[in-house]
Here is the input.
Amino acid sequence: MTIEIPAHMHPNRSFQGLILTLHNYWAAYGCVILQPYDMEVGAGTFHPATTLRALGPRLWNAAYVQPSRRPKDGRYGENPNRLQHYYQYQVILKPNPPNLQELYLGSLAAIGVDPLLHDIRFVEDDWESPTLGAWGLGWECWCDGMEVSQFTYFQQVCGIECAPVAGELTYGLERLAMYVQGVDNVYDLNFNGREGADKVTYGDVFLQAEQEYSRHNFEYANTAMLLRHFEDAEAECKALLEAGAPASNDNLPMHKMVFPAYDQCIKASHVFNLLDARGVISVTERQSYILRVRNLAKACGEAFLKTQAGGLAA
Amino acid sequence: MPDLLLELRSEEIPARMQRKAAGDLKKMLTDGLVESGLTYEAAREYWTPRRLTLDIRGLTARSKDIHEDIKGPSTSAPEQAVQGFLRKAGLSSVAEAHVHSDPKKGDFYVAHISKPGRAAEEIIAELVPGIIRNFPWPKSMRWGPASAKPGSLRWVRPLQSILCTFGPETEEPVVVDFEIDGIRSGNVTYGHRFLAPGEIIVRRFDDYVSKLEAAKVVLDADRRKEIILADARNLAFANGLDLVEDEGLLEEVSGLVEWPVVLMGEFEQAFLAIPAEVIRLTIRANQKCFVTRPQGEGEALSNRFILTANIEPKDGGKEIAHGNGKVVRARLSDALYFWTTDQGDLPDLAELETSAKKFELDLKKPLDQRMARLDHLNVTFHAKLGTQGERVERIKELAEELAPTVGADRMLAARAAVLAKADLTTEVVGEFPELQGAMGRKYALLQGEHRSVAAAVEEHYKPQGPSDYVPSDPVSVAVALADKLDTLVGFWAIDEKPTGSKDPYALRRAALGVVRIILENKLKLSLAIAIAASVSSALAVYEQKGEGAESRGVVAMLDARIREYKGTSRLLSEAGLISNLLKGGLAKASAETFGSADQEREFFDGQRLMELTASLSPFIADLLSFFHDRLKVYLRDQGARHDLIDSVITPQSDDLLQIVRRVEALGSFLDTEDGKNLLAGTKRAANILAAEEKKKTAIADTVEPALFRENAEKSLFAAVNQAEKQAGEAIQNEDFSAAMLALSALREPVDSFFEGVLVNDEDLAVRANRLALLTRIRAATGQVADFSKIAG
Here is the structure.
């Protein structure tokens, strides 16, 4: 099936065209195309469609765009490459198909990167997320010397061995778009592919927000409140896990409240990132906060294995 | 004889692991083959990012038949014993065993076991899966549907195919057939990922290499390196440039490509304002590209860099060079931003006033601001040893103390110490930690510091090892010694000494650095005093803060350690005294320390001062012995005799230069006839004394001339008195050759004594007197060395 794309929707003309092309490509492969998770996260990996669904034996293929927030990376809209809010395109395939590298290269070809014209390389990069208790092996994928994606075979998530292993692809959409559009400043990206008066740039959509959020992240975020929110989210996560835990007399030891509990883990993680950006967490405290979030993630992962999605046999 | 070809093809193997992995594969398989009774003529390993390959030539086709007899029990042995024998020998019934007769033992069972030789294919098919399963990757992973089950195959990245053929040159080779986790061996491989992705059928190594080459894969990493290096040099030359060679980068790049194509990219001239080293590291670390310089230039770089692509691009490389150039430009604009930011004012100057005052910093100068910030931020050096700021305070104190001893200007040494760590808060060093020191020197020169101060900022980290450059500018020497001594004293105080192979804080390297600085600059320096001064500077820092010895940090640690050693904190006052002495405040020191004039006189007797200093406390002695160990290693590497070094070092030896001179003088003395004989005589005296001391024979405290019976005794006594006095004087003057010469006069009288005099005289008084004379020989020679420790 070939979809006719109007010229202005080509990835080399529009940011949204890039996203739609990737959606088409992975939808054609058979992925569930999800929408972004409706909470603040630091990376696409935090979406429960990756963190939780990477666990357990069940087959799972999904792709989605995830707005990612890294409060510390804010530059008040003044840096052409750095943003505190940006988009990741995330693909998760469990178990990883044997031709995952070829599938990935196919997706690059779909957005117009010709491997006989451009130098595409898989450069060692061992991925690790201390907050999620997750690690995997894989590569940074380079295109003419620029890192455009991360390619990871998950070995462990939430401190639990992945069985089977999932393959994760994360595309840095802005970077990739800058590359295919030939643009040096992220704010100059053509968002909608139109020209002249109809043209909408990335800057039109996000510049003001970058400035405002940088102010918020570095100067105005209420740290006393955030510290409370962290404690609350942590307590709530534990409480929900406790409340949903299988009773001893259940026929099937099923957990009944994993996703809501995991939301609180995500919240704690984002609040920690904000506190970190505000500079109120010392080097020594930092480690202990990361550990607290990881403990929540681990508990959620363990609970997930006791659900149907996690492979609990009915 | 047949050859074996094995290729393990996978997804991209990290560049840094390839060479070792290929070597491991060769070792594991050849060892396994030999253990299984096969032999081979030659084996060579190859690797690319996507394959490990092994070429084994002249392998024997079969292992030899093995015949073995296993002796069993007597034919009349109980059934149980017979059954045990059958199990052990692998026989199913006693009928399969043979009966042998022995005149003594009678009839007994023997199993004739013959293991027929096995075909090499069979052995290989058994060995390879085991090697793959147990391969020593630094990190390995599971993948795909198989990973749902525990115990699934692990490899560095997914393993995709195994090629394994075997056969003599004259015949069609066969596939050695085996399977591991669903991967079946075959005779198929694939070419370059993009340029020739098709299937290739392989027979043996020769056609394997040529078919791969045709499919755009250069199998031999060393050849890929040669191609990259030659092409890069040529490309540079054609553009009027020289390649800045980099073996580590070349090795890495050769592990990132199967078909190297060298291209040139460029960036704007304006970026050349950044120091060359920063440009090189930026481009190397992030982009894995080489930099170039205009032909004939020693330092300055050009704005062209050289990249190695993995394809032959359709457009001749325009797009690739353009893309890489963009990334390099983005990285260099970061670097330029760091470099210029480091030369500008910090935004929070007002907050830095207190720190600036503490170090007498000039907040108009950028590097001074960075030092103030390092102090202000309370950056931890080590949890138990306080902050970087406190450390700099201590190093400054100590560098000032040491300055006169090493011939440095005090003010310059203090200034250099204050700026030595300032670059740790610069942006460039934050990005490239390996540039610490080097950047500090550049920034120091830019703000007009004295050349020696700027040099010391870089050189105080040196030497970093046995072959690194040793600073010689006195200011560098003062700060380098202060930095290393403070580190050693600090970690000794918190009992974080190196153990076995563990030396996380590189204390051995620091001590070796001190040794090399002292010896190679021929510095006359008492290490015991220097150590005491280091302790004392720590004290001074804390006293200024109005904190007592109970305060946290290095002083509290030292105090606790010293209490352990001595039950008191006497070292603290002693160190303070030494420090005062160094400052030349003798009157002040004596007034503070001594209750009476007698004590004072005793103390200032030269020899006494040395002794007291050296025996200041077990703390110093312990650290001193660590220096002795480093010195021994260093001197041995220089070819000095182990036993001579041991014979001149005492626990109190703290003048390294003197130790070396003693060893030298002693070495040449022992090469002479006199030296050899005196050594023998002294050893003989020492042996007799040791034997008598063991028997608790009476030995007179002093020699009594009235008890002499023989002339040989008299002349030896006279000679000893003379030699001891002369040698003593020579040692005072540090003239060890003269001391040896004085001792050589002992040779003749000692020889005559042992020839003509019987020590064990019946008269006990005479015997005790003669033994006393022997103690004098031991004492006289002991002034230069402990002769008992010398071999021969």
